[in-house]
Amino acid sequence: MRELCQALGGTEPHVEDTLVVLKPDALSRGLVGRILQRFEDADLALIQAETRSLDPGFVRQHYHDLEERRGRLAMELTERYMISGPVMACRLRGAEAVRNCRRLIGPTMPIEAPPGTIRGDFGHVSEEASMTAGVAVMNLVHASGSPNEARYELSLWFPTHIDRSPRD
Which of 1, 44, 89, 138 has its CB 3.0 to 4.6 Å from that of 25, i.e. a possible disulfide? Predict the structure, then answer.
C-alpha cells in the first residue's frame, strides 16, 4: 500500500484503531455477521472482539459525558438499554478507521440515517417513538467519535491489548 501511494505521488492514509460496539438489539436480531461484513467490505480489519454483558458502572464509564450532554433521562435509558443483553465490542483497524466507521454507521438516529448505512438499512426507531415508550433509541451500533475518544474507549474495553502491528 505504501509503495502504491508513493508511486502515485500521494501520501499513505493514516491507519488507526477504533472501537465499535454492537449493541443488544444488533445481537438479538441476529445482525452481527451482516454488520461486521460492512466493515470488512470497507477494508477495516477486525483485530479483536469480545462478547460480554455489561453492568451499569461500566456503561457509565463508557458514556462518561452523556448525562452532561443529553441529561439524566438519556443516561438512565442508555444504561437500561446497554445492560438489557450482551454486546460485542470490536477493535477495528484501517485507514482513517474512526471516520470511516462513522460514515458506514450513519447518524445516531436510525430514522435520519440514509439507505446504505448500517442504521439506515437495519434501524427503524425514531427518537420520538423511543421517548414515548420510555426506552433508549435502539440504534444497533456505537462507534468512537474521534481518535482521542477511540483511544479512551479502547483502553476501557480492551485494557490488556498489546499492539503488535508494525508502525513507523
Answer: 138
